[in-house]
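Quick note —
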Amino acid sequence: MAEAHEEKLGAVAIKRLIRKKLRRNAHDPEITYLNITAMMDMMTIILVYLLKQFSVTTTAVASDEIRLPYSSSQLPMKQAVNVTITKNAILVEDSQIVALRNGQVDPSDKQGGANSYLVTPLLTVMGQHRDRLKAISARSQTNRFEGEVTIQADAGTPYRLVTEVLYTVGQAEFGRYRLVVLKRGE
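Predicted structure written out below.
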């Protein structure tokens, strides 16, 4: 009997059934494909943001070689060339430039001998960084060369060594410097 009922349906009734079924599916569509373009755009934006944050963030060295002094300073760290003075070496961007003996630079590494303030290997490396940053500055209107350097020194570093480093980086046109310290309570 059901077969007889289906046979009696005319073209108008079939169209009505099809429209009714389509209306029912219009509210609850089944996803038959996945468009990942929007997701890829979002992930690209997040990746660029994280890379920018990573490149701007400067972190203090935490090791047995360096114990940073404490301060109540509230200034945020900025992107700059990083010079670290440990108990055994002077590092620029985590590469050892000069070895220290008893907290002093070897007189052969200084221009003018033991009483000089100019550390020749440090001047050479800082000159290379200056030239690189000036080349970037010449091609970019947003990145200006400001001659900024971040100095991280052990709390027990002799004052003479700190002044030698500051004098040398100043000769390489890095006249603006920040000394990295730890906040109290950290």
